[in-house]
Structures are given as structure tokens and as C-alpha cells.
Description:
Three copies of one chain form a homotrimer.
Chain A: H1 3-25, H2 30-52, H3 57-60, H4 63-78, H5 85-110, H6 115-136, H7 151-168, H8 171-192
Amino acid sequence: MTALQLLDYTAVFVFAVTGALTxxxxxLDIVGFVFIASLTAVGGGTVRDLLLDRPVFWMADPRYxxxxxxxxxxxxxxxxxxxxxxxxxxxxxxxxxxVAVPAxxxxxxxSGQPASIVLxxxxxxxxxxxxxxxxxxxxxxxxxxxxxxxxxxxxxxAATALAVxxxxxxxxxxxxxxxxxxxxxxxxxxxxxWKLPVYKARPPRQY
Amino acid sequence: MTALQLLDYTAVFVFAVTGALTxxxxxLDIVGFVFIASLTAVGGGTVRDLLLDRPVFWMADPRYxxxxxxxxxxxxxxxxxxxxxxxxxxxxxxxxxxVAVPAxxxxxxxSGQPASIVLxxxxxxxxxxxxxxxxxxxxxxxxxxxxxxxxxxxxxxAATALAVxxxxxxxxxxxxxxxxxxxxxxxxxxxxxWKLPVYKARPPRQY
Amino acid sequence: MTALQLLDYTAVFVFAVTGALTxxxxxLDIVGFVFIASLTAVGGGTVRDLLLDRPVFWMADPRYxxxxxxxxxxxxxxxxxxxxxxxxxxxxxxxxxxVAVPAxxxxxxxSGQPASIVLxxxxxxxxxxxxxxxxxxxxxxxxxxxxxxxxxxxxxxAATALAVxxxxxxxxxxxxxxxxxxxxxxxxxxxxxWKLPVYKARPPRQY
Lengths: 207, 207, 207
């Protein structure tokens, strides 16, 4: 199993958990859990592969969807054991982001894309699955949540991967650094309120 | 005309009717009817064809969009004749699902895909057009409606197609059985309240 | 630089401004501005290129995303200077539509597509970026706004392009006429209330 496949499997499982937790908030049945979990799990990677004109990863290997379905079933029967399903969802989502960004970076780098596209494929793979989940389930998208870093973490992680790759020429440390920076910035934003200044409407200047 | 084309034409027409009925609820003009009807009608099949890396069916034969536009115009001038536009929409949607699932199954089988992908292409083709319609028009997606079967019906129909195909080796009975099972389970859910148990939040166990 | 590239760059910049203005309404940070601006700017053209099975335009030339990011940063620091951000958004959106429709027409014509597909690619390229922006940011999609022309303007512009192309055989006047008709109809609708009759629910006829 390659590093990219391992990243893809892990991202699929962890994103599927977030999809299933969102389905639990919408009180769906078990097939609804599997549907939303699968959409979340493969959404970002599917857009990545369509953009890169590669075969879509889960079409080439349907076991990915088995992993997503298994995660959905586990959540269906165990979600009542956690104290706050929403906080659990947020932390799993942070973990999924931290795995999906390097998965996007690795796929784009393996396709021989230039650095700017590698950066973007990291952001796309990390952010779009969760965005689809939130749009379909009519939750406020996490990418738009005020006063929290989200897309910024994906950018920072992907940029770190590019820097480490340029410095060392080794893909593995680049992917590990990417995951670490993505997770650390996201976790810091959730735990300590790290944020960037947001746009504030001000009245037009008077002269 | 092949069986797949006939299924695609029928699914396009019936889904276009549901899109136009949704447009009538949003009080759009006739071009808005055509836009939403076309999006609904070709959305699922477009995703199917992009995933399968086939030419998109309505790009290869734009008459599909003529069919969708005709359905939109008919609904624009006749929707006031039906007593409940929402109930009419639900029944047309059930019929469209029952035609689109075998259309997805037939397209994937014709591309020589493995059984798991054939199953999924049935679900994708059946569910995604209506999902796009509901997300764009800001209706609660039918796939998420509590206490009703929807994705389950698509799964059941596609699984039936695979079973009949494996047993008989004949595509035509497989597609007919697929449509019948999809429609019967969806209609049973609407008429008699058939459903699966939904997730219920319970307080965490106390020890 | 070809006419198509010039149209694509202009559409990207102007749509990015509308995305950033929408981000300002959601009070996002600067990375959120860049994310929504980029999604809006390249959304329609990306769907166009996937449907036409061409390389996605901004993957082949990432400078497009630099343009979108620059627009987002400019708006982040200057949006407080305009009196009504929503009215500014509407007029930039009209300008973007008037550039994106000919961009879609030009791309489809360059791919040797038949007239009906050329027409549709104009509508798709013009309307889908803004639709994605509105769905993700949970605004009422402009394409669905009651009592205003929107998709109609894209249709009218694309049809004009086809008519001028058929009459003169020259692409440049066709693209200019397309932009002019799209903008004039959309501006007329916003300024003077031009509209088509909308669907009105009437009680079923009594016999």
C-alpha cells in the first residue's frame, strides 16, 4: 500500500465519521448515514481527481466505499455514547482535514503538477467533502464559520508540504509536516480561539 | 433506440416535471422553469457520466434538453390544474427515481464496471438530480426526509438488478425488476409509511 | 492573448469581486474571501471544461487564481468605501455574467460543438459560478430571484452570439454582441424592472 492510498483510506474513514455524525443530527436512518458518510468521505477526492483528469480513486478501488459504509454503521450504533456529538464531529473533522490535505498534495505531486496546483489540490481535497456534507445537510459550512481558521489551516499545511519538499526532496517528511501543521493550526483555532481578523462593515468615510 | 436511451429519455422527462413543479413553488418565470427542470433532469446522469469518464449523455445528444424544456413548458401552463403540486411532485419524483436507477445501472454495466460500481451508479444517477434541485431551490432534500425511504429504494432496486442479471444473464428483465422494486419500495414508503428505524439521540449511559 | 483568454481573465476578476463581496456579508477573514472569490470565479468555467472534456482552464494556467486572489484582497480592504455592498455586488455580477456568457460560447465554439451545446455552455459558464457562491454562502441564488431576468439574459446573449456568428461568420462581433445583449437585458431588469410573467398558483378550476 502506498502512502497516498494509506492517506486516502484514513481520510475516507475519518470524514465518513463526520458525515455520519451530521446524519445523526438530522435523525436519518442507517442508509441515510451511509449516504451522507460516503458523500463526505469521497467528495473532496472526487473533485480532485476530476480536476486532475485521473481515474476517480473510489471507482478504481470500491473498497474505499466499504470503509465509509463501515464507519457510518459504527457511528449509527455508538454515537449515543459520546457526550457532545457536535464537539466530536468538530475534532474528527479536524483530523480528517489533516489527512485529506496531504492526500490532495500527494496526488497532485504524483501527477507532476506545478507547485501552485499542488497547493490548491491540497485545499480542494481537504475542504470540499465537508462543504458538500454541510450544504446537503443544511448546516452552516465549517469553512464559513466566523472567528475560526479552516481554509487557512489547509493552505498552511499544503504550503508547508511544498516547503519541506523543496528543502529535502523527500515526500514522506513533507506529508507528515503537512498533516501536523494542518491539525495544529485547526486544533489551536478550536481550543485557543486562534483567528485572523474578519471583515467588519464600517460606514463609508465622511468628508 | 436502445433500452438505455429510452430509460434516459424517460428519466429526463419525468425528473424535468419534478424540477418544474419545484420552480412553480418558487414562483419563477418560464426560463427559470426550464433552468431548474434541466438541472434536475440531467444532474444525476451528468455526474454518472463524469465519474465513468464517458461522454456526457446530453452533450452527445442535445435532444435530451429539448425534452426537459418541453416538460418545463407543459408544467408552466398546466400546474394550476392539479390539486396539490407537492403531492404530484412526490409521485413524479418516485417515478423518475424508478427510471433513473436502472438508467444508471445500465450505463455502468455497459461500461464493464464491477458489481459494486454498477450498484453505486444506480444510486448516484437516481438521487443526485433531485438533490441538486432541492439544494438550489432551498427545499429540504427528499433524500434526507425523515421517516421515509429514498436512498434505500435506489439501493434495493440496483441490488435487484444485479441479482436478476447474475441469475438470468439478461439485461432487460434486470432493468424491469430494478424499476419495479425501486418504485414499489418508494411508493410503499409514501403510501403506507414503510421506514427504517432512525437514529435517536439518547443521553449517554450513566454508570 | 486570445479573445477567449481575455474573456476568461475578465470574468474571473469580476466574478471574484462578487464572491468577495458575498464573503464580506458573511464577515469572513481574508482567506475566506480568497476561497469564496476563487470558487465563484472559476466555478462556471470549471463545469464548462469538465462537460466539454477540455483541460480545466485554471489548472492549465494557475495565474487565473492569482487574479481571483488579488480581487479578493482588494475587496477585503476597500469594500467599506462603497455605500451599498449588495447593490455593488449586483452590478458586478451583471458585468461578470456579460463576460462569462461569451467566454462559454467561445470555448464551446472552439471545441467544434453544435449550436445547441454552444448556447448551453454560454448559460452554464455564466450562471453556475454565481449559483455555487450563493448556495455555499446560503444566500438566495440570484438565478432564482423573483421578478428579475437572469438565466433569460444568458440565454438571450448566447442566442445573439449564434445569430451574429451565423450571419457574419466572424467570432469577434458575435462575442461583443453577446456581451452587450446579456448586460443590457440584465441591467434593464435591475434598473427598470423588466421581467417575464412568473408562475402564479391558481386554485384548480371548478366545474
